[in-house]
Amino acid sequence: MLAGFRDFIMRGNVVDLAVGVVIGAAFNNVVSAFTKAFLDPLVRLVGGGEVAGSIVLRAASATQDAIVLDYGSFLTSLINFLLTAAVLYFFVVQPMNVVNERLKRSEKPAVAEPSNEEKLLAEIRDALRQQPRS
């Protein structure tokens, strides 16, 4: 039971997945910091105002609060996602595809050894060729 669990954990794909999750979390922090430092101010500059691009809907009565639709934070999150996806594609997926393609080209297919039936037929053929013809 424990040997099966050890084999499961030591398989490459489980370890690769764990490393990918940790790297993804660290990369998410980097992209979030970039977004907060650079993209948020740019969206605020374009949207104008303290809240990064928003639409204020006035309440129907004086007792209700106004509704603020903060589309600026949505745009920032969308840009954040697109940057993350682009970086992962161009710096992880694309290079891995190139490496896998090179490995496939360098691997030569193994020469198939003839089966026992083919060997036996070849021996019969050779024996028939060696017999004198009458």
Could you give a quick summary of the protein structure above?
The protein has 134 residues and is mainly alpha-helical.
What is the element layout, followed by pairings?
Elements (H helix, E strand, L loop, with lengths): L1 H9 L1 H36 L7 E3 L9 E3 L1 H36 L9 H15 L4
Antiparallel strand pairs: 1-2
Helix pairs in contact: 2-3
Kindly describe this structure:
- This protein is mainly α and 134 residues long.
- The chain is 72% helix and 4% strand.
- It contains four helices and two strands, in the order ααββαα.
- A two-stranded antiparallel ribbon has the order 1-2.
- Helix 2 (12-47) runs antiparallel to helix 3.
CATH class: Mainly Alpha
Tell me the total number of β-strands.
Answer: 2
Structural class: mainly alpha
Q: Write the CATH architecture name.
A: Orthogonal Bundle
Q: Let me know the largest β-sheet.
A: 2 strands, antiparallel
Order of helices and strands: HHEEHH
What is the subunit arrangement here? single chain
Number of helices: 4
Radius of gyration: 33 Å
